[in-house]
Write a structure and sequence with these properties.
By secondary structure, the chain is an alpha/beta fold. The protein is 39% helix and 13% strand.
């Protein structure tokens, strides 16, 4: 097979309108229908644009069939600049009634009074969610996001490349990676792919290594950063040592967590450590299914993986009663299962398993045991913009790992101090 990797359209299990309508017959915890219009801002959680649009259009019809007096409008929004657009809408007293949020967005919108609790919407089944999912979406005992799906990342290996280097057991720990690097280099290959671009989220590059080292981004009380302690230095040193040896490819500097564009996708590097089910499908198409191996999350001082609940939040200035009704509908087992089949994501509920014919489904499900759903802070997004260039400086040898992390920590602590 050609080693160059093309972008492929991943076939997704998209339920028909009839199936969605039938799914609406499950218990939803409510007996009435809210007649006011509810507007939802939805993002492309389904990879295929047409499938994404068709799914939500079908769900609109199914919802309005169940609640005959309700009017549901699901507006498709792009991922690009979503924070800026949502912040502008909220500050102007407008915006949607319901919006998809990730945990690290909640503190910033909660701080300016833009979000209302979702506890009423999940009353009666709040205990059915994964504890980590609901915990990271909560503040002061109230939930501000209702999980509707859960992502998880884990290791992805190219068996053909490991075989070429004579490596029988895929590297599962930091020590394994260090030991494998010289063998892969002798075979003309890099070991571990990484995304060091300023545009790449640290949740999919440095932070998992930090958590595997036993470290944290923020202190326990959230008043200072913690990534420049000895655990943070160990994580960055592990990375810079690999980069200096050529075990992390130089192309890492331009990577933005897109498998098709990276050395891993192009079969120039043997493994990645923050890959998703979508990546596995792309790799199978390009490498051949026989060459795709999926493992457990990497282990450093501890085992950890990034995964995040995708949640629905309520605009504090919107139609809260209608928003609660829609969220209650979306968090029921039938909708969780339906959305999971369409997106390829996992269930955020402990009593619901999304059916899957993927041979890697169990590996992903097992990885949830090690999930770290990010670290919430009003400055979480801004801090990434401060830390990413310093990691680049360490990788290129302009600064030592300690110097780079200390420089970012000084600015990060200043950023946090201005929030008080």
């Amino acid at each position: 097979m050609n080693s160059s990797l093309k972008r492929v359209r991943i076939p997704l299990a998209l339920l028909s309108l009839a199936a969605l309508t039938a799914a609406c017959g499950g218990s939803d915890g409510g007996s009435g229908s809210v007649s006011e219009e509810v507007t939802v801002w939805m993002y492309p959680v389904i990879a295929d644009p047409k499938a994404n649009a068709d799914y939500w259009q079908s769900l609109e019809k199914a919802y309005e069939k169940k609640y005959s007096d309700a009017k549901l409008t699901i507006e498709q929004q792009p991922w690009d600049n979503r924070d800026e657009k949502l912040a502008t809408a909220f500050s102007g007293g407008k915006g949607p009634d319901v919006v998809v949020l990730q945990p690290d967005q909640i503190p910033q919108y909660l701080a300016n009074g833009s979000l209302a609790p979702v506890d009423g919407a999940i009353k009666g089944h709040a205990d059915k969610f994964l504890p980590t999912a609901l915990e990271v979406l909560s503040s002061d005992g109230k939930a501000y996001g209702a999980p509707i799906y859960h992502t998880i990342t884990t290791t992805l290996y190219n068996k053909k490349l490991l075989d070429r280097a004579g490596i029988k057991n895929p590297p599962a720990t930091w020590d394994d990676i260090k030991a494998a690097a010289p063998k892969l280099k002798a075979a003309g290959l890099a070991t571990l792919d990484y995304s060091a671009s300023n545009e790449a989220t640290l949740n999919l590059n440095f932070y998992p290594l930090l958590w595997q080292a036993g470290g944290r981004v923020f202190s326990e009380d959230g008043k200072s950063v913690a990534f420049n302690d000895d655990k943070g230095v160990a994580a960055l040193t592990f990375l810079t040592d690999l980069y200096e040896q050529g075990a992390v490819p130089k192309t890492a500097m331009n990577n933005v967590n897109v498998l098709a564009d990276q050395a891993l996708g192009k079969q120039q590097v043997a493994m990645g450590f923050t890959n998703s089910g979508r990546d596995f499908a792309v790799a199978e198409e390009a490498w051949g299914k026989e060459n795709v191996l999926v493992g457990a999350p990497l282990t450093g001082a501890k085992q950890a993986a990034f995964g995040v609940p995708g949640a629905l939040g309520i605009n504090a200035k919107g139609n809260k009663e209608g928003a609660e009704q829609f969220i209650n509908f979306m968090t029921q087992p039938d909708q969780i299962k339906s959305l999971g089949q369409a997106t390829g994501f996992l269930s955020p509920r402990t009593d619901v398993t999304v059916p899957s014919d993927s041979p890697h489904a169990k590996k992903l499900q097992d990885a949830l045991a090690f999930v770290v759903p990010g670290e919430s802070s009003p400055v979480a997004r801004q801090l990434m913009g401060i830390l990413a260039p310093e990691i680049q400086a360490a990788l290129t040898g302009k600064k030592s790992p300690q110097q780079a992390l200390d420089a970012a920590a000084e600015r990060g602590d200043d950023l946090l101090a201005r929030q008080r």
